[in-house]
Structures are given as structure tokens and as C-alpha cells.
Amino acid sequence: MLLKPDIKLRGITDITVELLNKYDIKALLLDVDNTMSTHHGTILTEGLMEWIKKMQDSGIKLMVLSNSKKFRIEPFAARIGLPYISLGCKPLPTGYLRGVRKLKEKRKNVAIVGDQIFTDVLGGNAVGVKTILLTPIKLEDGWSFKVRRKLEKKLYKKYNLTDEV
């Protein structure tokens, strides 16, 4: 079940404090591309800043975890006011474990939020954090993405993944 997310939602702003409380989640590791913005985009998803404020006001800890390089993630994270880990090497455990340590939470109380099964969900499940899979904001053009998305489609059917909200 390494490829099955704990929660499936449409977008990041569909994550509510009530939902996080239900799963005893106290902190979130947040992917960037196709989660908070389009792939390599700079425009924030609608309502993101308000959502971040609401989460923080409710005591939910937030941190960016991305496979992208520092020159891409640092300005993005600064713009939304969150700490970050770049070159997270997802789905390998390194980035997730660094994030959990920096958030000062137990793995069982942390969730990764992202749009890809073979990076965000696989890595999160492998290290024992909860996994929240989002529908990608916009599908990517590259051939490797097309291959992965085609495989993901089969997993969506296999696990009957539909939005919880």
C-alpha cells in the first residue's frame, strides 16, 4: 500500500483544520509544483495565502519540501513566508526525515501534501508520515510526466481515489 494516499483532495485549500485534527496531523510538508503553483510557475494557487494564515493561526506547522533546486524554491518559500527544504530527493527518505526533524513533530503527526503518487505518496508512506494527494493544478508536458501520470491513472482506478471533499 505504499502507493495509496491516506487522503485524496482536489486542491490545497480543501485541507481543513478539522480534517487534520481527524487524522491527528499537527504539521504539513508542502510540495510546490502543481500543489501550490503550476509546474515551475510563480502564480500562487487561489486562496493560498489565506489558507496558510488559517493553518498557522490554528497551530498547524508548515514547511515547503521540494525536489527543485534552491534558486527556485528559496524565493517561492520567502514569498509565502515558510521555511523550506530544497533538493528533497523525494521519494527517498532524506528530505522527509529532515522536514520531520525541523518541524519537531513525530512522523505519525506529519503529512506530506503533493500531487504525485510516485514521489510524494510513495516517499511519505515509506517513512511513516501521512499522505495527502492533490489533483495536479495543470498537467505537465514532459514525456516522463506523461508516463508517470498514465501509471497514476491506473492507481486512481485500483484504489478508487476520489476527492474526500
Description of the molecule:
- This protein is an alpha/beta fold and 165 residues long.
- It has one domain: Rossmann fold, CATH 3.40.50.
- Helix content is 39%, strand content 15%.
- It is built from six helices and six strands; from the N terminus they run βαβαβαβαβαβα.
- It has helices at residues 17-22, 48-57, 70-80, 93-103, 117-127, 143-158, and strands at residues 7-9, 27-30, 61-65, 84-85, 110-114, 130-134.
- Strands 1-6-5-2-3-4 form a six-stranded parallel sheet, sandwiched between helices.
- Helix 5 links the parallel strand 5 and strand 6.
- The longest helix is centred in the C-terminal third of the chain and has 16 residues, at 143-158.
- Number of alpha- plus pi-helical segments: 6
**Approximately how much beta-strand content do the residues carry?**
5-15%
Text of the CATH class: Alpha Beta
The CATH architecture comes to 3-Layer(aba) Sandwich
- Average pLDDT, all residues: 92
Q: Summarize the biggest pleated sheet.
A: 6 strands, parallel
